[in-house]
Amino acid sequence: xxxxxxxxxxxxxxxxxxxxxxxxxxxxxxxxxxxxxxxxxxxxxxxxxxxxxxxxxxxxxxxxxxxxxxxxxxxxxxxxxxxxxxxxxxxxxxxxxxxxxxxxxxx
Length: 107
Prior knowledge:
Family: Belongs to the ASF1 family.
Number of domains: 1
Subcellular location: Nucleus
Keywords: Chaperone, Nucleus, Transcription, Transcription regulation
Organism: Triparma laevis f. inornata
Helix content: under 10%
Number of strands: 5
Main location: nucleus
């Protein structure tokens, strides 16, 4: 299984693999996995894409062939208020960026 953070909708080369794990053998039936990964490296994400909505992809493969891909929306927000016209502070204090993963609504 692989967890990938989409750094920019415009450039897939900015996608970051956050974690890769081998699982198995997996019994037949419905299974549940808990995946935990470090945050993406914000220094390689374009400044205009750090805040707002993006996607985390969880993919599963067997013998190097992907057979399942699930996407979760992630909303990145700045914890402090700022003037909407001026935009968030530059540079961003990344300790004040929060992420909410819509884990109950996979796509």
